[in-house]
Amino acid sequence: MTPNLLPDAHISELQWRVAAVAPGSVAHPDELEEDLVWTRARVPGSVAASTTVAPPDSVDWWFTTTVTAPGGGASVLTFDGIATHATVWIDGIESAGTRSMFAPVSVDIPPRSGDVQVAVRVDSMDARLKQRKPRGRWRSSLVDRQGLRHERTSLLGRAPVYGQVPPVVGLWRAVTLRERGTAEDIRVHAELSGADGTVRVRARLTSPAASVYLRVGDHSFDLPGSEGELDVTVTVPDVSRWWPHTHGDPALYTWELEVGGRVEGRGSLGFRQVELERAGASVAFTVNGTRVFARGGCWVPLDPVRMWVEADALREELTSIRDAGLNMVRVVGTMVYEQPEFWSLCAELGILVWQDVMFATTDPPTGGEFLDAVHRELDAVSAIVGGNPALAVVSGGSETQQQPTMLGVPLEDQRMELLESVIPEFVAHRLPGTPYVTSSPSSISGELHTHVGDGIGHYFGVGGYLRPLSDIRTARVRFAAECLAFAVPPERRAVDAMFGTANVAGHHPDWKSAIPRDRGSSWDFEDVRDHYVREIFGVDPHLTRRDDAELYLDYGRAAVCEAVHAAYSHWRRADSECAGALVLTLRDLVPGAGWGLRDSAGTPKAPWYSLARLSTPICVFIVDDGLDGLAIQAANDTGNSISGYLRAVLFGPSGPMGEPAEARIALGAHTTDSVSLDRLLGSFTDANHAYRFGGQTYSAVVVELVGADGSVLDQATHLIGDRHPRQNDVGLSATAENIGPDKWSLTVSTRWAAHYVCVDIDGMKVSDSWFHLAPGAARVLTLTGAKTTVSGHVRALNSIKRAQIS
């Protein structure tokens, strides 16, 4: 992973200042007028986090600072990212320039003592886009300024679909000043070779060294110390494999490069084998030879204004993703490459990363400066991810092939050198062993790139295209790199905090500004959600909103839960053709009802819990197979076998009907199994009321996966029937008990069937919410948070009365 070059001095954000000037009005730092309005700049960080004196793209931005060069030898000033066209002056001398926000810029500073004056000019993107450039072969529907195809910059803030976020401009990544070392440009790459691991280390030795040592874990290797290029591969015997957390231990090894008695670089790495096997239309994703169902979502920057967060915030977010049972995130080609801490944490926590190259929907130019900028960009990415076992897939971008396909461009006119040769050749050379796909989505059997059942798909049949939930079964999705986009309302307390009241929902400009909308469309994703409210629950969402805005949003939350459950219960079942599915997106960029399953503050929304219940490494869930009855699906992703039994209970309108039925089950490591409920019960029951012989007999089924020691490993509740009409009171109750510091247990019970029970707690995290309860059933949840009392309520979608927590 990223080398930590020593010694290393970060330039404090308080040392930078920034000012805006008219485009092209100042050509040299000596021309900066004294009466300019200067603001302290937050570095690293996009300029929008420091000042709002002008729209970020509309002006030239000047950054200045004074730094003290390290004493003694030469030093290097490195900008990890400047967005986007920029020039750097050192003591008034033009010293470097860049045209890509994704490639670092380094400036050599000769030996000296005293202060160094640094100035950076970032050119106006608006002015750049006014320059005439060759047109592409097709127009992107994502952006309105087609000249962006020539720029190596993020579309975030420039594509309206992402809402009111500013474009990334300025010194958005870290700036460091360090002494020049005896080893420069250190690169490490790790691969698994049978039971052993291989580590390739490359560096540039600036002078001969008496000794060079590479240490990997407990192993030490003596390397040649000649001046020039160092390129050595060593073998580490009998290594522990790195696994995604759902399937095993994410084992890591520390590495350290010592040159002439001084540590020049250090980091950590892991050994694993990742493959994306494609045959015909099918896709199989494997880690260390084991099939893995990849579940998770598309990642968005946690701070879309500054574009930089501290490591603790990243750790909290990624830990929540891991704890929910998700094992993959995708960094989308419309966003930015993430900061190094993101990669270190993904490796540590066992989270796989699908990495898009930053291309999306446009026709990329070829040759010249643009191609050179792409090469430097890829080189910078490989320096960060080399040796990092979390890297799972590299893609040539987001919808780079789908866009011309949907516009009807003939296949022969869609060919892109970058996707078909430049990027894959780079991946093969610098990141060997990493699967590559030309684009997300992309066909693998020759079908159109819009076909969701062929190769890598983007599945919005259930979603933007308003297909029924049954479409999930007929679409035969093989790997959904994006899916299930809805305008998901935050929880009630979050809506109140963001907007003051739920009454803004559906119509107020402040609310609507956060609703995702495709550019030029006559509908938005709130219309999509309302469609499924009507289809699933048989209520008119618009009339409901007039009478009760909070109930309207609850129906919307539950509708998305239904979609998520229908999709993932089919995609994860034992006989599934699907190798993975990533929701769009894991988190909102701005406050409101965005695509995210978590709001912009990181608080889970309703469908987050639905996805988490179907993502646990040891999981049991129920699928309605129509006339074949209810199928019980059991999955064991872990590396340990499970011996135990399945226990099923049928419930009538007021409680259990008869004794539980049990059957032995043995789940080997990394296996799934399926058994029909009728087989478990030993007789035909028509439990799902598919045959409709008379009135409906059963109201719910509860299934538990029980370990050999009698502990319940997982459980699932399935309510029978499509509609659960609201009634005055279903008999909910909730009791909290303190069980330790900052930890409480919460017992939620009901007298009659409770549809989508929401646990609404003030200032605490709850282990589950938006679940079903069978008549007379109870669930014990865990609450965490620094509270001396528990304040809140539980409610159900089919109950007018709610229960206060006692």
List keywords for this structure.
single chain, about 800 residues, alpha+beta, eight-stranded parallel sheet, six-stranded antiparallel sheet, 44 strands, about 30% strand, disordered N terminus
Explained architecture:
The chain is globular, with a radius of gyration of 28 Å. It has 806 residues and is an alpha+beta fold. Strand 29 (618-624) and strand 30 form a beta hairpin. Residues 1-10 have low confidence and may be disordered.
Blueprint (SSEs and pairs):
Blueprint: E1 9-10, E2 17-21, E3 39-40, E4 60-68, E5 75-79, E6 86-90, E7 93-98, E8 105-109, E9 115-122, H1 125-129, E10 175-179, E11 183-193, E12 196-205, E13 212-216, E14 219-223, E15 228-236, E16 253-259, E17 262-269, E18 274-279, E19 282-287, E20 290-291, E21 294-299, H2 311-323, E22 328-331, H3 340-349, E23 352-356, H4 368-385, E24 391-395, H5 402-406, H6 417-430, E25 436-437, E26 456-459, H7 471-475, E27 479-483, H8 492-499, H9 509-512, H10 525-537, H11 541-547, H12 549-571, E28 580-583, H13 606-613, E29 618-624, E30 630-636, E31 642-652, E32 655-656, E33 661-667, E34 671-676, H14 677-681, E35 700-707, E36 712-719, E37 733-740, E38 743-749, E39 754-761, E40 765-766, E41 771-773, E42 778-784, E43 792-796, E44 803-804
Parallel strand pairs: 21-22, 21-28, 22-23, 23-24, 24-25, 26-27, 27-28
Antiparallel strand pairs: 1-10, 2-3, 2-4, 4-9, 5-8, 5-10, 6-7, 6-9, 11-12, 12-15, 13-14, 13-16, 16-17, 18-19, 19-20, 29-30, 30-34, 31-32, 31-33, 31-35, 35-36, 37-38, 38-42, 39-41, 39-43, 40-42, 43-44
